Each structure stands twice: as structure tokens, then as C-alpha cells.
Amino acid sequence: MSTINAPVTATKPQVVELEAPPLTLRQMTWRRFRRHKMAMAGMVMLVLLFVYSFGGSVVYSQAEATATDTGLRLEGPSAAHPFGTDTVGRDILARTIYGGQISLIIGLAAVILETLLGIVVGALAGYYGGKLDSVLMRFTEAMLNIPQLFILIVMAKFFGGRLPDIEIFGRPFSGSVVVIIVIIALTSWMYLARIVRAEFLSLKENDFVLAARAIGTPTRDIIFRHVLPNSMAPIVVAATLGVANAILAEAYISFLGLGVQPPTATWGNMLDGAYDYLESAPWLWIFPGLLILFTVLSINFVGDGLRDALDPRSRPE
To answer: Of 46, 96, 150, 250, which residue is least crowded by CB atoms under 10 Å?
Structure first.
């Protein structure tokens, strides 16, 4: 009996294509932000401004920024003084470097304090509701009805000059820096508080919050570990845009002579010193004015990009 051997055919190994793991929320946010061209341009511009303000101190010392020479007063831009000199012969380039440090520090510090105040007020009002919500929101609305610039002027006039000069890392600062930071924060927290309250009102009845309550999670943990992290997107955007508003607010009151007082320089009080020389010495206001303009524009571009990137309704790309 004969057997027929069937031909043996080699089987081709199958190639299994593995799907890429899904992107995390952070990766999707970064991808959306990266595709926002104006936001990336603003980020680059902002980095350059920080390098200019804080890295420039390596090239120019504070002594050069405060050194006066009346023989060089109101000299135009030159090789020795690229931004020219001011009314007492100080180098404007060096002063914009050290003034930029103060302006940016004021913007960042004021926003940190403003954000803390806004989160506390908004979280308490939104989570607890009832009478506490009514009291806090009526106070917030009362603050909103008073013009911010008016409050800034009145408080700066009242508290200005009452604090002595302070020294940080061996560098003297006018006590008015602290006053301006506190004043800007106390007059700017209301919008953020309303944003946080709205977020808490929409999130506190969600299933994950109800489950946390059911298992006896302390209220503090529910607020700061469950609800607040899910409200961070609008808070981050509002805080980013708040830096630009704080820098502008400092420029407003410094231009009126009520902000940070000499010898500490800021971009705002440099504009105040240029008021009488708008036509005869335009370099006194052009360079600090452009730095304020570029800073505010770049922060607004970054804020717009963050708003689009953190929007949960955005289509993943």
C-alpha cells in the first residue's frame, strides 16, 4: 500500500502590527499647543525676554545700571550706549535689563497671590454654596464694580513709601515693590474667583465627587485632590493672561508716579521719566515701551494657545 506524501509548504510568518499606545492628556495638550503657531512664537519671544532680563545681568552689572554721568545725559543710541542714556546719564540698556527683572517679578508674584486668593474664594463659594456663596459673591461683585485703576491709584498713594527698602540676594529693592505686588493681587482676584466657582458648581455633583463623599473622604481632600485638579485648565489660562495684566497695571501706576519708586527701575517708571521728552528724546520711551509690548503680546499668545490646548472639547489630533 503506497502513501502519497503531500507537499510541505512553508507558511509565511504573519506580521502583527502593534498599535501605538494612546496619547496621555499631557501629550495631547502639548501636541495641540505645539501646532498653535502664534503660541509657539509667543513662547519663544517670552523665553528671549527672560534671557534678556535675567541673563543680561551677566553682561551689565547693577552698578552700571545706576551709575550717573550728567556729561552723558540724553545721548542718543550709540555704540557705547545702544539704547542711549537718560536725563542723568544712566545707560538705558542696562536699566531695561534690571527694570525688566522687577517688572517680570511683579507680574509673576502678583499672579501667584491673585491665583491663591481667587482659588480659595471661588472654591469655598462653589463647593459649599448657600449663604457662604451669596456673601462671597456679593463681595466679589462689589469689588468688580469699583474701577481697578481707581483702586490701584488710591491704595498705591496710601501705602506707597511706608515700607523701607529691602535687600534680596545682596541687591537693594524699593519697599514699594512689595506694596505694588500686594495691591495688584488684591484688585485682580475677582475674575478668577468667578471662574473657579463656576467650575466647582459644575463638578461637585459628578459621580467621582459623590463617591468620594460616600466613602468618607474629608472635605479638604475632595476640594484639593478631586475637584480642583479637574478645574486647572481655565485656572492656568486665566493665570497666564493675568501676568500680562499685572505688568500693564504696574506700568499704569508707575507712569503716574505712584508705582515702584526709584532707585529701583521698572519698565513702567522708565516711561514715567520719559514723559517730558516724548519728542526730543524718543529713545527714553521707545525701548521700555517695546519691551512691555512684546511681553504682553507674547503672554497673550501663550494664553490663547493654552486655552485651545486645554479645551476638553477640542478634537484630538
So the answer is: 150
**Has residue 20 been placed in a domain?**
no
The CATH number of residue 98's host domain is: 1.10.3720.10
pLDDT digits 0-9 by tens, 156-210: 777 766 666 666 655 666 667 888 888 888 888 998 999 999 988 888 888 888 8
Per residue, what are the HEC states of the chain? CCCCCCCCCCCCCCCCCCCCCCCCHHHHHHHHHHCCHHHHHHHHHHHHHHHHHHHHHHCCCHHHHHCCCHHHCCCCCCCCCCCCECCCCCEHHHHHHHHHHHHHHHHHHHHHHHHHHHHHHHHHHHHHCHHHHHHHHHHHHHHHHCCHHHHHHHHHHHHCCCCCCEEECCEEECCHHHHHHHHHHHCCHHHHHHHHHHHHHHHCCCHHHHHHHHCCCCHHHHHHHHHHHHHHHHHHHHHHHHHHHHHHHHHHHHHCCCCCCCCCCCHHHHHHHCHHHCCCCCHHHHHHHHHHHHHHHHHHHHHHHHHHHCCCCCCCC
Residue 109's domain spans which residues?
29-60+83-309
- Domain assignment present for 314: no
